[in-house]
Amino acid sequence: MTTTTAPVVRAEGVLKSFGRTEVLKGIDLTVAAGEVMCLIGPSGSGKSTFLRCINNLESIDAGRLYVRDELIGYAERDGRVYELTHSAIARQRRGIGMVFQRFNLFPHMTALENVMEAPVQVAKVPRPEARERARALLTRVGLADRTGSYPSQLSGGQQQRVAIARALAMQPELMLFDEPTSALDPELVGEVLDVMRGLAEDGMTMIVVTHEMGFAREVGDSLVFMDGGVVVESGAPADVLGSPRHGRTQAFLGKVR
Ligand code: ADP
Ligand code: MG
Is 63 helix (H, G, I), strand (E, B) or coil? Predict the structure, then answer.
């Protein structure tokens, strides 16, 4: 983990409401280059909303959210902030890969076509090059022999690995995972976590919302416990899991273990 470069993600006092419901009540955190941050917390604590703000699928109401020193969704000039254009937002989003609980693959496309789609359509990569890259990525997630399969012909674990390859195809500098194994049958969880572990070993910067405490402990560099729209506690995974300081963390960990 490098500490000499600027953080990949920096959140300062991030506030987000839906109507009158305050969902994020001032989130402060940083993610360093190459860091794997695991994010845990009860349902409704704002984890997904926070990831969606980083990816600009939701806009924030106050505070600052930077990815690589760039404000997400806004430009800062002379001390004032301006909303970015759609194309500038799309460019920012391209540097961030997101993997959801549900795989959201295009059902009418093969695994290979799913992985090629964004590079060809969005980044205008020539097809032969996109195909080669897609093959390499599917090999990386252990699916070299399933490039021609349609999503309906793949298990949930295989589909999720295609979804990871598809996110990697845009060569992101940051990967966001929102409960990537929660929809999977238990016997398929391991193959997806193994791919994520490999990514971490290759130095990818990752924020992972998960209930897999074993993964958090073994792969995570840091662990953040959120509850009620605030960061209650964060630190080294072994410390937070082994000796949580706050009652809310203790109560939550008591329930998930
Ligand atoms: P988590 O991922 O930790 O379970 P979420 O970020 O999904 O939590 O949700 C936090 C809170 O925000 C919940 O109370 C949820 O109902 C609410 N919420 C999330 N998205 C929306 C939305 N688009 N409109 C209104 N409320 C929302
Ligand atoms: Mg969620």
Answer: strand
Question: Which atom of ligand 1 is closest in space to residue 229's alpha carbon?
Answer: 10
What is the distance between the alpha carbons of residues 224 and 240, in angstroms, rounded to a whole number?
8
Instruction: With a cut of 50, list the residues of the chain below it in pLDDT.
Output: 2
The pTM of this model reads: 0.95
* pLDDT for the residue numbered 4: 61
What pLDDT is stored for residue 82 in this prediction?
86
Q: Which two tokens mark 183?
A: 């929809």
Task: Write down the pLDDT at residue 1.
Answer: 52
Task: Please report the atom of ligand 1 found closest to the CA of residue 209.
Answer: 2
Tell me if 83 sits within 8 A of 76, measured CB to CB.
Answer: no
141 alpha carbon – ligand 2 mean position (Å): 24
Give dist(CA 239, CA 162) in Å, integer: 34
Distance CA 226, CA 90 (A): 28
Residue in 48, 59, 60 to alter for ligand 1 test, most ligand atoms within 8 A of Cβ:
48
49 in Cβ contact with 66 (< 8 Å)? no
Structure tokens given for 155: 């298990």
In contact, 95 and 67? CB cutoff 8 Å: yes
Instruction: Fill in the amino acid letter for 187.
Output: E
The beta strands (E) that lie in 95-173 are given as 96-99
